Amino acid sequence: MAMSPILLYNGSIEQNFHESGEYVVTIKDIAQMAGVSFTTVSKALNGEPGVREETRNKILAIASKLNYVPNLAARRLVDRKSDSIGLIWPNKSGLFLYHLFEQFQIQAEKAGYSVMVALGNPTASVRTFMKHFVDTIVVWPSSENTSPEFIQAREAFQGTLLMFNSSPSPYYHTISIDRQEAIQQAVDHLAGLGHRKISFIGYNSEKITGFDRATQLLELEEHPDRLIFTPKNAAESWNRVADMLRKPKSQRPTALIVDSYIAMFKLLKLCKTYSLRIPEDFSLIAYDDVPELEEITDIAVTTVGPSVEHLASAALDILFELRQGHPAEVGHRHVKVASQLTVRGTTRPVSDYAL
């Protein structure tokens, strides 16, 4: 009796057969053997930039050894699946969302997907994608995503559903952002520069929790302006920020963390009103890093937050795994994307603010 063909890699054995009984090598096999992501393998096999030459050569050698032959047409016939992604995006302005949307499109198209975009009503969008046989939908949450109508449409959808900016779910795949860790990075950086009197301006609960944890752990100074809560950028909250800025230098914090670039713009406007300068009068870190900041502001802002490239890659890695493997075996995936601190010109040692 003939033995079934097998693949041996990283000390494990995996079998992967076409319906005809013939062994089919997939990108998943190559990625596991090379110890890289599915996105990296796709880029290497398609001659795309962004892969180190050593890694590319290793991937190509493995693909050659395994006689890997991409056969997208045959795969579609067998799997009854398209290579289209329906992207449901909130119909609102925002530099970060714009850049994430753009980066997702770029990476998806390089990976062989076509992307259809829907703005606005997510329930109608799901139904429209279903009519066009789109079997993968990616969503950025909005208040409408919790409506009974959307939940009903979501449950009727039989394909792959992935939600950005979402906690783990038993119903769909999810990508979340570690905002607590991001603000902790910001506090750690400022504390490393000697700052003991730091203020946080914002309203996101995860970020406030990260600020509280970091300041308590580092035993930083308690002061009246330690936390200025700004729900939906309410005017009265920014009056409190203005009051803080008008205080004598000895009573002001030496460093500020704001929870969005929108809050940063409001802060900079107030600073101009009261003839204060950053970083001459205090250090500043803003959450979210968008390219326009360096062009709009007079000085390059130190930022913390997730990379849009990493967010897009995390989502597409999940979709690659599902496309190359067996969704029922994979289960509902959840990936939490870490943030990165980018130090620029708005932070300096506390000694520069000596009274």
TrEMBL record:
Pfam families: LacI (PF00356), Peripla_BP_3 (PF13377). CDD domains: HTH_LacI (cd01392), PBP1_LacI_sugar_binding-like (cd06267). Keywords: DNA-binding, Transcription, Transcription regulation. Residues 25-79 form the HTH lacI-type domain. It comes from the Bacteria. GO terms for molecular function: DNA-binding transcription factor activity; transcription cis-regulatory region binding. The keyword Acyltransferase does not apply. This is LacI family transcriptional regulator.
